[in-house]
Amino acid sequence: MSNAQFNFPENFLWGGAIAANQAEGAYNEGGKGLSTQDVAPRGIMGPITEEPTEDNMKLIGIDLYHRYKEDVKLFAEMGFKVFRTSIAWSRIFPKGDELEPNEEGLQFYDDLFDECLKYGIEPLVTLSHYETPLHLSKEYDGWVNRKMVGFYERYATTVFKRYKNKVKYWLTFNEINSILEAPFMSGGIYTPKEKLSKQDLFQAIHHELVASASAVKLCHEIIPSAQIGCMILSMPTYPLTPNPDDMIKVMEFEHSNYFFGDVHVRGRYPGYMKRYFREQGIEIKMEAGDEEMLLNTVDFISFSYYMSICQTADPEKQKAGEGNLLGGVPNPYLAASEWGWQIDPQGLRYVLNMFYDRYQKPLFIVENGLGAVDELITGADGEKTVEDDYRIEYLNDHLVQVAEAIEDGVEVMGYTSWGCIDVVSASSAQLKKRYGYIYVDRHDDGSGTLERYRKKSFHWYKDIISTNGKSLKR
């Protein structure tokens, strides 16, 4: 394929993505209640605290709550067609189990979405992005408790009705399969991971899947013109060797992730999971109507893509890949980022083809990016900037593979790179792990002015969007 053949669809949704808990800050303003993020100062896999602590970078984030107009204007300058963010559930229902929502929280998102629409930017909104109200986690043990379905339905109904004329694209749960490795952050499950039984974990997953299907049904009823999708952490997996035992390990690992997409798209539990439940002594408690509810299937599949992994049946080589949330074995053919995440642009083409072959549904890449330590310098024009050619190379190479997948016949709706503006890392709660096109002057010790500066990649991405991908380089 030559450069002239990069043919992205005319209506391709170019943009960027963040999460409320990593950007907004203002954790105790506007009537907001505490979320699970407010007591996790070390990120997804770290310890939790009883109360928020001053060293939790997410309490201030990048202060998007007060600076969203400035930030949305910068997104518009890049030419964004879409902006993915989440609604902080505890801004709308501070404890999560109230009967009436918090008007101040609802108004904030009215203002944010209005600001996006002013510039012709479509909001893409995740209902639950690693920020379960803390009260629901502590009082109910999160999604282990069936009552969570009702609380989530009330929340979803509230925001669908409120923003039905402003939001066309919705996602139900962020990286829903990550609950397998991060039950507190992903599922609000307060029981420590090492004490959580497989029975309770998969019962919690069932409750989330029912709630997700219910949100799809509610969205279609309340906003018939909208589209709603699931969101999966994609992890393409290769056998470490041609040994058939390694291939079976790959199949078993991929089943654990495909399971979530299979239920969202096909509306039923797949046979391989039924076998797993039998062999593990797990019995999913189904309530009347659950099987019918699951038939409310998604309009599209969205996913994150950062890395691929290998699997092997050799116990001597079964070691977790550094930095890989879902484990796996490092690939000897791939380089890695500063955080040990292996860089594999072709894996994105592979996973796009695998998802499309499996589901025949439109796909949306809603997270992809490179976390790196950036150095703020003064450029030739006297403006502060970051010479992040490493990020440009990473994103260019991945977008070339998206173009290849489109040529393969894959229907790709859009691409929102992760952390379009620097945000607090979900995995490590650091700000030095930066992803954005926009540098935010805040540091891990809490210092900084919070001023925004355009990186070199800002201007590069602006050019990519304005040419609809034709300026990508092979």
TrEMBL record:
Q: Identify one Gene Ontology CC term for this UniProt entry.
A: cytosol
SUPFAM superfamilies in the record, alphabetically? (Trans)glycosidases (SSF51445)
Residues annotated as region Disordered? 29-50
An example molecular function term from Gene Ontology annotations: beta-glucosidase activity
Q: Which UniProt keywords apply?
A: Glycosidase, Hydrolase
Active site (catalytic residues): E367 (nucleophile)
Q: Which domain of life is it from?
A: Bacteria
Q: Which NCBIfam families match?
A: PRK09852.1
**Protein name in UniProt:** Amygdalase
Q: Which organism is it from?
A: Paenibacillus amylolyticus
List the taxonomic lineage.
Answer: Bacteria, Bacillati, Bacillota, Bacilli, Bacillales
